[in-house]
Structures are given as C-alpha cells and as structure tokens.
Records
---
Amino acid sequence: MTRYLLSRAGQAALVLWAAFTASYVLLQLLPGDSILIKFQNPELGLSPQQIAEIRAYYAGASPLADYAHTLLGFLTGSFGYSIDTGTPVVERLAEALPETARLASAAFLLAVVIAVVIAFAASYSSASWLRGALLSVPSLFISVPAFWLGILLIQIFSFRLRLVPVIGGSEVQQLVLPVLTLAVPISAPIAQVLARAIDQVYAQPFVPVIAAKGASRWWILWRHVARNAVLPTLTVAGLTLGELIAGSVVTETVFGRAGIGRLTEQAVNAQDTPVMLAVVVLAAAVFVLVNLLVDVLFPILDPRLKGAAA
Amino acid sequence: MSLLEVHDLKVSYDGRPAVHGVSLSVEPGEVVAVVGESGSGKSTTAHALIGLLPSNATLDAGRILFGEADLAGWSQRRLRSVRGSRIGLVPQDPANSLDPVKTVGAQIGEVLRVHGERDRRKIRARVLDLLARVGLPDPETRARQYPHELSGGMRQRVLIAAAIALRPSLIIADEPTSALDVTVQRRILDLIDDLRAEYGTAVLLVTHDLGVAAGRSDRLVVMKDGRVVERGPTSSVLAAPQEGYTKRLLDDAPALSARPFPDHPGGPPAIVVRDLVKEFRVGRRPFRAVDGVSFEVTRGTTHALVGESGSGKTTTARMVARFATPTSGTVSIAGAPDGRRFRRHVQLVYQNPYGSLDPRQTIGEIIEEPLRNFGLGDRPARRARVADLLERVALPGELAARRPRELSGGQRQRVAIARALAAEPEVLVLDEAVSALDVTVQAQILALLERLQRELGLTYLFISHDLAVVRQISHTVSVMSKGRIVETGTTRQVFSDPRHDYTRELLAAIPERVR
C-alpha cells in the first residue's frame, strides 16, 4: 500500500511539473505584451525609451535562468508579482480562493445530489417512459451552456419572480443561482455514468441471490447496487473537476462574483502572465490532488483492488 | 400433505410461452431433481416458485401451494417474507453470485438481518456457526474475507450457508455444481445431502446432468420444451425410461455411458513435449504453474490432459499452441513450420463459445477469417470452402449470414471448430471445448470431433477437468496435479487400474454409474 501511495504521489508531482513547464513555455510564446498594455496609456506620458527600460527591469538574465527562478519560486510558495497591480500573486490568489472554493464545493455537492436523484429515480421507476425521460435529462443538462443558464436563472428568479436579489442579499442568496448554474452541467456526466453503472450491477448474477434472501428492492439498491456502482462513478466525479474550474470562470463572470474565475478573466485581459501561470498551476494542483485522493479511495471501496495496490 | 405442490404452472417471456403447464410436488425432506437441457424451462420453473423471474417474464397461470398458501397470487412484498426464511436458493454460478465488495460474513449475516435480527453479536455467532457447518476451516478468518479471496467451491459453501441460515423447509438448488470441478462437485453435493439429513430440508435440485441427479434424488421430473415429459422415482425412471428423450439424456450423460474404451492404434508421435516448465511471478516469488511436464501424442489420436483448475493443464495447452513461451523445456510438433504459418498446422478451440466469436461478424466471415489471413483462395473459392466447412460440422448453410448471438451454445462451438479447421490444421488443441455445454450437446460435439478425427486424421490435445468426458473421447490420458503429471497411460489403464491416489480421487468423484 505504501509503495502504491508513493508511486502515485510521484506521478502526481511529475504531472504538476509538466503542467507548470508547459504553461510557462506557452505563456512566454504568447504574442501579447503585458508591459505595453499597462504602460502605453498616453496619460502616463511614458516615452518608448522609458517603456524599454521598464521591460529590461522585468526581464531576467536568460530565458532558462528565468524559468529556473520562477520554478524555484513556485516550489517555495512565492508566485511572483502581478504585472497588472504590482501586488504579490499569492495575495490575489488568497483573496479569490475562498470565494471560488465555496462556490465550487457547494456546486459539486449539489451536482452529486442531482445525479444520485436522477440515477436512483430512473433505476427505481418501473414505468419505462418515466425511466426514459429521466435518463434523457443528463443529455439535456450537458448541452446547456453555463453562461446562458446563468442569464436565464437571473431573468426568472431575480427579475420575474424577484426571489433572489441581483445586488445585495445574504451570503446564501448570492450563492444560490451561481451554484445552480455550475452544478447542472457537472451533474450530467456523473448521472449518466451512475445510471449506467447501476444498470450493469443489476445485471450481475448476485442481485437475484440477494433477492432470494428476502431483501427488498430498496435494500438491494442501497446496500449492494449503489455500493458497487459508486466505483466507476467516482472516477468520473474526479474528472469533472476540470469542468468545475472552467465553469467557475464563466459563472463568476456572469454573476459578477469575485473569485479565481474572475481573477483569471482579468489576468487574461491584462496579459498578466505571473497570475495566469499561478492560476494554471493551482488548477492543475487541485486536479491532481483530487484524482490522487480518488486513486487512494479506490482500494478502500473495492476490496478486489487491495491485492493490486499492495 | 406435500410441502410444495405446483399445479399447471405457465410462464411466458415477452408474451411467448416458455413453460406450458408444469405440475410437480415435493414432500418434506425429499430430494426432487428437475432434469432437462437448457431451454427446457427447468430454471424458469424453479425461479417462478419464489417470484424471481426476470423482468421480461410473467407468471401467466398456475398454483404454487407451499404449506397452506398459494404463492402464485402473492405480491413481491409478501413473497419477501418467504424468501430466505422458508425457501432458500443455492444459485448456479458461485463465481458471480456474491457481492464482490462485501465480506463473506456480511453476506451470510444479511439473511438474518433482512428477516429482522438486529443483535450484532447473535448474527456474528450464527455466521461463524454456519461457516463451520458448511465445512469451511477457520470461520473467523473466512467471515472477514471477500468473495474474490475464496475458491469456487468455497464460495458455493458460503452460498449454501446463506441458504440454510434460517433453516428453510425447502432449498432450491439451481445447477449448484455445474460450474465446479468434479471433486469439488462431489463434496458440495455431499454437503447438501448431509444438511438435508440433519435439518430435514427438502431439496429441489435443478440440473442438466442426469449423472448428478441419479445418485442424489428420490424422484425425477424430466422436462423438455417447457413440459414435463416423464416423472417417477429416480431408480425406476433410470432403470426403465419410458420416453425417448429420457433415454437420450441417459445415453448422453457421460458418467452413465458404458461405451468400450477406444483402441490405441499406435504410430509415430505428432506432438512431443519434454520437461516443460512455466514460471509466473506472483509478487516477488516465482510460481511454477507447469513443473516438468513430458508426454507424447500419437498422430491421429487424442491425448487428454486432466486435472482441476490450477493444475497447469491450460498453461500447458497454451504452450503447445504457442500462445505462451515455456520458461524451459521443448514442444515439438511433427511437420509444423515456424512463424505465422505454425497456425496453419496447429489450431486452438476455446472453452467459451460465447466469448470466442466476434459478435459483429457474421458466421461466414468468422469461418472465412483464417482463409483471408493466410491468403488462401479467391473470394468464390473461400465462399465454397465456408459452405463446405459448415457442412462438415453439420450446420445448415443459411447460418453463414447469421451472427453469433442468434446461435445456441452448441452451434457456436461448432462454428468455433469449423473456424479452427478452415486452415486445414493437423493438430487441434481443445481447451475445455465441451465443458460449457449441456450433456446432450456435449455428446453431439464429442461425436463430431470423433468423426472429424477419422475423416481428416487429426491429432487432438484435449484439455478437460471432466474424467467422464475424457473417457469417451481420448486414447491416452495424462493426469495433472499442481503442475506435474502424476499418472499417464492409455485410457483403459488409467480408468480400470488407476495407480495414483489423486487419479483414484478424481475417478471416485464421477457421479456413480447406475447401469
């Protein structure tokens, strides 16, 4: 088990390094010029020569030394300074992270609840039309663009029904619509995989054997079928995290919320490379960590993998 | 009064009738065997008794009198009070009949919990009792283990423990041993017998093998195409079967056949295996699956490798067919070329006719594939060859356009044999090629193999765990145990004068002959 954990952790570190390097190189190759964007404003009254001096001030000794310096910084927890605002990137991340963490975790929980309800209801309903209708819901959910759903929800709940204020309102009120916007598309793949896994488990020969013990439908579904169907679903749930991060950019922009998504949007507009690099590496780190957690959880949930993991 | 009386039971699948008015009765403490081929409706009848039909099946008519009640009219909710407590089920396939993510102990204790026991200590004590009762050593450890950590025979014991936990008055045993090795099969049947004697439980034994039913049941019910064709006390039905179908089942049951041993013709060897060794790495220590195996097979004869699962017989077969490389030792096959053309000379037929055919190809394409691979003949010539091969394995020519799922198990195995013959090989390696088939189909395939051997002069290496089948087809036998050959000789020698204890044990496990 320890060996398994160590090798998975090693792989995770390697993925993180690769993500860092790839995004570093890509951001360097980007045709934009953050210094020009910030200092070309005529009101600042800077001459081209002064801009060139500023550029020289920011530039390092050589590209490779630059890379090494930045990598070392990341390893020690210093992500450099934002070109746009001049504040340390760490501070900007620290400001934005809790907001997004709240939004994303609430959305993920809601997505899981929606997925479980859809999948259970579909497998429990005996009428085939109802089952078909329920199983087509995820396809609908996955095809809804997040920005459109967000605008639609604001239209209906804030402007028409006036249930949720657009500006102001309590913390919970502010969170309801963004969470819903983010949760709906993420629930779709989870629901699809869970529903299919439940069907596959129901086809296993051990299910009638449990029924022959006198177990009720709910007993079979909850204690055996769901328990077995969790395994493939967990993998997909781990992978939806990427969508969660991408979705929060759109959601935070549509609802005007502060957070990593908004930070990303601002950084892209300002070509603020250090912030962008930090955001990418942070997203990769969260992604890698969550999937590492999934890998560790797997042998605990499926005893058949213990031998393989040991 | 009878324990169970079934009157005129009718079941249909998607509106198509499958069971047409079956009646049978079981007295307290009695074993009644329901015998028939697959598709005879025997399993459907058994499952209908406790209301566990697949979702596309419906119980159309009939009465199921169990004690005072008529279960036929009961709702699922009411049936739950009977299932597990008064009627237990021992299922067919021990490999997949336990939930893989729950411990064995939890799955036995489940019956008690479902029927209202809440006291954890009581459940635990009863589970340990039951595990000991069904003959599993070290119940404490077993209870904590997961199904994948147990062998097939042990899993079947666990399933029996769950079935008897509440001392039901009737156990439905649906092909309880058909997926098990012969020696294990015998021990499981003995266990069911013991429990019946001890608890006075009646058993409804569903099986396709008259050999199994013969020694174990008081009365026989023979089913064909959803109808009962013959019934009566087991001894009298076996002694004087009235129906042609029963006679055929009797003839086909390998354990019951009294055919003379085939003569060994002698001649040059086609396969020579010398000191074959195969090691696998399990974790850090090497494991010898095959440990110094040597044998010879005379051209045009059948040599059988017999043993239980894990004896190394399949690994040996794979090395002979060059699907695995020996760690050391040699296999030489007379006249076999090297490289890819080796496959024209030696072909393999697998156990599972359901898994070995590509479901997306037509039967014609499947049989033609080796011809295309070796570039034999042009299109019309290949078509003609496919038609010829289908005829050889006694399948109608129209089947060429069908797909595997439209065929029965026996038909599929014929297709697999036709495909193996397409490249005109001289050696066929048959890996448990008839083990997944019903006795009647099994007998037909064995007859086909014999005819093909005569007509084409083929040499067979026949891998099987079933000595009764081996006795029918092979000229010489090697008995394998734990990677070694413990006894080898002509079939006559090995069967009439076994030298090794293990061979004797295997022979004793063949359901006893009644004629």
---
Amino acid sequence: MEYVNPLTGFRVDGRRPNEMRQLKGEVGVVARADGSAMFEMGNTRVIAAVYGPREVQIKGQQVSSEEALVRCEYRMADFSTGDRRRKPKGDRRSTEISLVIRQTMEASILTHLMPRSQIDIFVQVLQADGGTRAACINAATLALADAGIPMRDIVTSCSAGYLCSTPLLDLNYIEDSAGGPDVTVGILAKMDKVTLLQMDAKLPMDTFETVMELAIEGCKAIAKYIREVLLENTKRLECQRCLRPDFVSGHFLQQTYMYRAIFVEIKAYKAAFGSED
Amino acid sequence: MVGLSEGEKHFIRGGIAQDLRADGRRRLQFRAMSVETGVIPQANGSARVRLGSTEVIASVKAELGKPSILHPDKGKVSIFVDCSPTAAPMFEGRGSEDLSAELSVALQRCLLGGKSGAGAAIDLSSLIVVDGKVCWDLYIDGLVVSSDGNLLDALAAAIKVALSDTGIPRVNVSLSAATDEEPEVDVSDDEFLQFDTSSVPVIVTLTKVGKHYIVDATSEEESQMSSAVSVSVNRHRQICGLTKRGGAGLDASVIFDMISVAKHVSQQFMSVLDSDIAAAEEAE
C-alpha cells in the first residue's frame, strides 16, 4: 500500500509528510477533579484528570518522605477503537503506557515541594486513532497545569515514523499499523531536553536522526499550542474573578445562603402583597 | 468519597426538608442538562449528557452476528458501563467494578426486559436480518467521565439519545438455494436505517433523605440518603423496570407514592430530553 502518494507527496489522510493533525485542547472538562483537560490530535481524543496533591492514600506506596508520590492510570474506553473489543483492565499494554506517562510527568513535577503527598493522574482514551501515548502526555500536562501543580517545564510529546522512504510526522492509526518504525518523543519544551524516547522496528542510524528531529519539531509546535491554551484559560479565569468575586472562592454553602436569602425575600414579598403564585 | 462535616450534613438534610436544596433547587427539580450527539465518530450512534457536574458518554455499536438458538427471531443487545478513574480516584484499577456492574445490571433490567427479550424497550425483532442466520448485535457502552451523583438517570438518558442518533446500515442479503449455507450479506455504506426509539424509557431515581425524597441528587445528597428507588418509565407512562437501592426499608405505600411521583416527573424529563435531542441533531 502507498502511504505517501509518489506524485503529489500527500499522505493517506491528505496531509503533507511534515504536517501535524489538527490539535484541540480544552482545560477543566471534569468538574470535580482538581485539574482536568481534554486533548485531541485529529481523531485521537483523550481526557486527563488530576487529583492531588493530597494525603498518601496507601501508606505502603510512599517511597520517600522527601518527595511527592506520582501515580498514573491509563485506560481505554470500550468504544475507543474501530472494532469494539472488551479488554480486561490492567492489560500489559495499559500498564506499560501508565508507567511511561508516570515517569515522563514525574520528571517535570517539582515533587520535592510536596513531601508526604500524592498526585494521581488518570488518562482515559475516548477515541484511539494512533498516537494515544503522545496525546495522553499532552493532556496530562494540561491537566497538571490546570491543577496548579508546580512543574519545571511543559512536557509535550509527538510521534513520527518512516514510510515509503519519507519521514512522517504524527502517525495516524493506518500509518501506525503499517509496520514501519514509530518513534515517540517527549521533551521538556523550554529546557530542550528529551524525557521520553521510544521506537519499535528498525531504522538506519542517519534516518533515525532525521525522524527524531521531525518528532522534536512536532513536540515544539505542540508546546506552543499548549501555551496558547493555558494563556487563554488564565485570561478567562482572570475575567471571571473580576465579574463574580463571590463565586470564585465560594464554598457551596455560601452560595446556598445567598439562594436561601433570596427565597426568604420572595416569601416575604408574597406575604406582603398577597400574590398567589 | 464525599467528606462532609456534621454542620454540612445537617444543612443538606434541613434544606431538603424545607424544599430548598443546597444548590437552590426544589425537591423535584433536575439540574441543567446539556446533550450532544455524534461525539464518537467511530460508533453507529453516540451521545454525551451532562447533568450539572455529572458527565456520561454512551455509544452504540452494531455488529453482524448470529441469533441465539433459543430466539432465532430476535437480535441481541448488551449494555456495559465503565466508570472512568477520571470521575473519582476510587475508580482506579478494579475499584470501579462493583459500581459498573451495579449500573450495568440496573440498565439492562430497565431497557432490555426479561431473559426472553419480552418487554424490551428496543424492538429486538427489528434487529433481525435473516431469521435464525444473521442479526445485528448492538453493543451499548456507557462511560462515566465525571461523577456528581445520579449516574443511573444520566446514563439512561445518554443511551436514549445515543439510540436516537444510531443509524444501522442497510443490508442486502443474497439467499443461496442451499438452506444450510451461510447467506452472503452486503452492508451498505451510505444507507442507514433509523431506530424507533419512542418506546425507550427514561429512568428517574427518587432518593429518600429524611422524610422526603428528591430527584437528581448530587453526590453530597446521595451520601445522606437512606434508600433510593429508580423507576424507568416510557412515553406511555408504563413502568419498564424498578430498582431499589440502599439499606433502609421502605413502606409499600411510600413506594407507590414514589412511583406515581416518578411517573409525573419522568414525563417532564422526557419532554426536556426530546427537545434537547432535536436541538442537538440540528446543531450537528
């Protein structure tokens, strides 16, 4: 099968070899989590939620009393793949990806600032179309930022591959399952350091370099987008604070007192003016 | 887990007794609902329903299969629910299995009827392609993304919306002369058949807190419940299924009272849902 059209140079989904799929990031999608985000790369869509920093739930898991414990769970929805298959929870692939995400995020979180506490990162894949690993890391970064957890830098991730003697950025499911190499890179965007590097299949040394360069370029583009999303979110929050100061810090009881006060006023009004409804 | 102080618990109970709940609602008032269809492009039908901070996604996938020997004239429908750990940290690992199983069974009871398929909300005989040979298997998956109480009602509403969004591909069957041969099935890519979802019920859960009962409880309110009755009611005001949860016993007369209230509330809920479905389909 031709993954890159030899005449036009376009890929199966109409992209150029060094073109990324459309990105979409949204912060605060899970109301009750401390931080949450949705991240889309084309048809791949994941949700990440962060709970913490909070007290260590199972004391035995606490490794060091100097640093926060970071935990991660990756889960795929039953309907996320093309053909529906019910997988048992905690299969080896999920366990491996959970571990990869945990290690990558741990490298960026300032764990020494939150000793004796625990941070949980949960990622849920809603749609899988290649590059779920990368999308999960990007979503986790956004969610951690939303939760206000101190981080060294923004971690972003992107995949790249090599098919039909062309390096391709951000593989979709068809390209991913073509059997070629799949290089997933995660970087600390500002410090310009690689924190995650994975590749399957074989690739000549010099080609690997160009493919990895391409993936790093992709990571940087994602970092730029994530910064925009976070800036936009911060502006929105600031705007909200100006508009309704009582709701930002308001405990739900405070709001209720307000509702109840209005209710009592309406009752008094009805009693005074004898309105029936 | 919901951590509440004594004062907060008292406040919630007191508010319910005075018909003014912690978020300003009356006892029989639902939270604001938002409905979106077509959220999972890979599925035949899908929907996202938000009730306050509760968010669920339902997807319907249709696959060709073989009807069971006992019911050669009926298709198969199965419902699975999964609670994502994004909704609460306690759903991590195997922590969600109990709740997922409870919700799945409750939904199956309300939507699929008995084992024989009698009384099912979905007309199972409409899923048949060739009698005894080929039928559609419907897989309904629910996913709880964010949980703030009343998951069952939200899931049932999401499934109802997802089913009305579902298009089953039209199939052409070429029957060969030999009867025991596998029939050839040609699945159309661009012609879809819509489902008749008018008889799919909604579920209304009445949660009893103190002497009174409320609809659409938040998780704070659910933590104060003594028992809850989930009633599924269809458009013709018929009861399709009933589940009681919670340890405390209920007087039979109270249950009858609750059912009649649930019937009344469900009709309002269904009309709100119908207008939301129409709006969501227009927006798509």
